[in-house]
Amino acid sequence: MPRRTTVILAFAGLLLVAVAGCAPTAETAPSPTKTPSVASRVAASGDGTLLLGSLFPMTGDALESGAAQVAGAELAAREISEQGLVLGHPVVIVHRDSAHNVTSAVADLLTRGVDAVLWDATSPVPADVTTAFRTAGVAVIPLAEFANGGTPLAASDEFAGRLRTMDPALVATAGGGEAYDGVVLTALAAVEADDDGARSIEQAFDRVSSGAVACGSWGECAAALAETQQIAYTGVTGRRS
Questions:
Q1: DSSP string for 26-91
Q2: 8 Å CB contact between 45 and 190
Q3: How would you class 49 by CB atoms within 10 Å of its CB: exposed for 0-12, middle for 13-18, buried for 19 or more?
Q4: Where are the domains of the chain?
Q5: Which ranges in 84-229 belong to alpha helices (H)?
């Protein structure tokens, strides 16, 4: 390239730089700062099968109530399987006695890897039992929360008949409804959370208890959840207190 042309181009470049330096600079709007969103759900931790433990009195003075609660829990598991599964699998329940050597019963349920434990509707959960399960990452479901005034009521004739399809020798029915509702509500929580892990169940429990759409059976509630509706399971004992 001739030298003259090089000088002209260099000068023109300097002139453009000078003009650019004198021109007013447009202010750039600051980028909005994104506020970190709070996660509404915990990370999934289940294995896809809802495995429940129960601690009901199977010996002693409250034996009859324990039998009703076993029947109620098993009835719920059966009807859930008949009306649709939980995360593609049936609910599995392991029953243990809350009235005799509860420490051993708790250890056995932990060894089996249960996701949640239903505690007897007729008594409060002992603090050491709650601590043992929650330390191990297991949800605790006190069935007394389903009882009207804290006292399980005898089942209606219709529901008593359903209970006796699980245990024809059933004498008392009080507690059966609470156990039934405990299983159904726990299963609905797992479906709503799409996870059978304990933390997911605990978090979803209130979401399936206090929504705008009331539903009274597993099938009805599961259908509403499939349509992403916010449900309130009413069940046999009414809304959870």
A1: PPPPPPPPPPPPPPSSPPP---SS-EEEEEE--SSTTHHHHHHHHHHHHHHHHHHHHH--BTTB--
A2: no
A3: middle
A4: 51-233
A5: 102-112, 127-135, 157-164, 176-193, 198-205, 218-226
* pTM reported for the whole predicted model: 0.81
- The predicted-structure confidence for 42-85, as pLDDT tens digits, reads as follows 776 666 789 999 999 999 999 999 999 999 999 999 999 988 77
- The Cα–Cα gap between 95 and 237 comes to 22
CATH homologous superfamily, domain 51-233: Response regulator (3.40.50.2300)
Residue burial 5-30, b: 16+ Cβ < 10 Å; e: rest: eeeeeeeeeeeeeeeeeeeeeeeeee
* Buried/exposed 123-162: b ≥16 CB within 10 Å, e otherwise: bebeeebbebbeeeebbbbbbbbbbeeeebbebeeebbeb
- Count how many residues are written for the chain: 241
